[in-house]
Amino acid sequence: MAEYTIKVRRFQPESGEGPYWEEFNVDLDPSLSVLDGLLQAKDNEDGSLAVRCSCRAAICGSCGMKINGQSGLGCKTQIGEAQEQANKMVAATGATAAEASSPIGAQAPEAQDAVRATGQEEAGPGPITATTDAATPIVIEPMGNMPVIKDLITDMESTHWTKIRRVTPWLLPHGEPPEREYVVEPESMIDITQSMACIQCGACVSSCLSMEADPGFIGPAALAKAYRFVGDPRDAETKERLHDLAHDPHGIYDCTHCFSCIDACPKGVAPMDQIMRLRRKAGEEGIEDPNSGHDHEIAFVKIIEKKGTLDESLLLQESFAPGFKGKLKPNKRAIREMIGSIPTAIRGIKTGKMRSLHKLIPGVHPKLPDQDDVKAIYKHAEEHNEELNLYIRGEEGEDAQPDGAAAEEVTNG
Amino acid sequence: MPSHDVLVIGAGLAGQRAALAAAEEGVSVGIISKVHPVRSHSNAAQGGINAALNPGDSWESHAFDTIKGSDYLGDQDAIEIMTREAPEEILHLEHLGVTFHRNEEGKLGTRAFGGASAARTYYVADITGQAIMHVLYEQLMKYSEQIARYEEWFCSSLAMDENGECCGVVTRNVADGSMELFQAKSVILCTGGNGQVWQPTTNALICTGDGIAMAYRVGAKLMDMEMIQYHPTTLAGKGFLITEGARGEGAHLLNAKGERFMEKYAPNKMELASRDVVSRAEQTEINEGRGFPDGTVALDITVVPKKRVHEALREIVLVGRDFAGVDITREPIHIKPGNHYTMGGVKTDVDGRTDIPGLYSAGETACVSVHGGNRLGANSLLDTLIFGKRSGRDAAARAKRMEASRPSKKVLEDEENLVADIISREKGSGRRISEIKRELGQTMDSKVAVFRDEAGIQEALETVKRLKEEAKTAYIDDHGSVFNQDLIAAIELGYMLDNAECTCVAALERKESRGAQYRTDYPERNDEEWLKHIDLELNGDGPQLSYSEVTITQWEPQERTY
Question: Alpha-carbon distance B150 to B495, whole Å?
Fold first, then answer.
């Protein structure tokens, strides 16, 4: 048993007050979960502390929440680990996740500083000690990108589930079903079992940076669900689905490839990988990326491989009209987009993000001297270019192989 | 007043399947669930679903295994229906989009499971329940015009008309606390089991026996309530489930001396004997000092090829890592028998009809009975789907020929008064709900578990009666309307106590050992006196006992060895 302080961002909608922080002291084994800690507080101290939960075993997907700023499941995060993480955050930044998080008055500005700490004042930036000081609270907040209803309960219906329904989430086979089962490649079923493993907890949605910028983004969970049908050989409307998701401005090209959803997902669904699979399939269908996001990404990768740092002059051309080196033949849309980018470029120059004008002249941007190391990283990445499917490969590092050590050396170099 | 021809309560596999089947008949359907449907506990069914679909297999073989597994307490007419309809149901699910495992030819592939004489378990890795339930929910979304979904609505009592027929249900919209009386021509209870009556349990926090208690309170008969399954492989302390699929894939059970002790108890089937047999074997090893100091034995999955573990036992790799800190591919994991499944429940016929007109039940809430004294692994998903479908169809047929009768507002007023009473209790006026719940769970787990005797059960029953009194004054902290989980927990506690009382009374009554009921004071099965169901009916304040025949068609009871 060990003592922990959990600091919960609370909101009681009927109180007339805005959100506030409240600390609870709980006593439990470090191997038990953050949810167990919350339930202890709820059972013993305050039954009005609201949190959705059911299975306690990371199967039902009810207890999505942010723990020390990280989206995940309360039941799957061990409280001992959460404490270590909280300590590390304080040691590294001098602030708890509560201080680092968005101002608490996001919904009710007047309550910005309403802190109802039961014990001491908030652990301030004070002296940084790397002890396992249990006084550093574990910070628990409701999921992001969703309205909060009460305490840790968010409105998933208006956000998550509306987006799920957007992708026509049911199988669309053509014709009468066969007399027995559909005969399909065994691998295809294992492949989509990864997205079937999704428990609809919303952790990926909570962590999605694209959705923060564009609340209309269909988002990681719904797009992973879409891949479950696109990758299913029994579905007869693959093409229609891909066109639909590609031409929606909030669709598959709205993802910025930030990996947040992969980090957040408690079930190894790797939603971003599913989105990339959708993009690849769209490419195979000859679908053009309407906002050049995909080309932009490829251009980015190519330029870094070539030069080690980002050559902005090439990035613009490459993104909108791939194939430079004298073969630059931008189509009308590309010209329009490039002209449209001029204000962004000017802002870049003004804010110092684009450091000097001359860099805009192709060929001026220098190569990094240790470019060979960059190439080695690329080579390694290419050799290991397999998508993560836990149903096929197991966890990363589950097979400790000499290869793993080599990989670390390269990336460190 | 919201009104539907058929109203389904509970949206796990049985409920969703019932709603879809009723909608196919062209009637208006509503489905109510206290949690979002995909949070339902059918999710937790890991291993698979049984069907005699392979060319070499037969429904008779599946039926016999089920009957033997039930220790001959299962009703053979119902088992026949379930096993005969199983292959068609598997194919139906496959056509809807369930991503069942394929063999090398791309056809449906199977795995071995406990108590079965053939490998007839169809599966999706070890997320079979989840995979099927999410596919059914896809269908609910698809047919949203025919099926109204009431997600996060809690049911607190059934409404009856003056003829004693069920005609609706009182519900609370969890999101805002408003209470509504729903009208329906047929009501189907699919609220799952009552595992939370025991602590620990593999069951989710929502499994509080709601439907069983609601039916009991309006006079429906319950059956086989003493039959509570303890699953052989659960994590100590937390009660998390390790699928039987692990043993199906070849994992061994070892005692602290490293002996594969099942050799002594079930020399032929070894680890794949019926669950009651394996649980008793483990508990015997533990009780006789051959277990580990933490009161467990070990499950050794390292003997299963790694590739196979990744592909087929993914979920328990995660359970081992996240909840026990054990890499199951490298070392054995400590396990013990833990509360898992309610074989008993609301007594129904093969079309889900209870003995109250208009009231149906299916899935773990119901007792048809296809599981008798002990359920075989991978038969529970099948039970939910087959009898969900059949009750949905029959409920729709009834709705088509009936006029709706209007439920009296009194039942709504009664519930509103009850809620007001709970909310008005002063802090400190009694015990906390959570305290009572904990005492209940610990009592049941120590006295009404794998091994039972008269003194223990009697003690548990007295505790339950005392807790029922204490629950009347127990107070809650939350006095609000929005997501008042505290209030719901108080009502659920009442359900759990009714369930517990019925289980104790039935366990005390059955003076023999059969299936999950093992009485150390009556260690033998006694077909002469006890080859019969124990029925319970509310009379005044407690259950009244009666008996009913076990239906035997072609399989006479034999000695049961594995």
Answer: 21
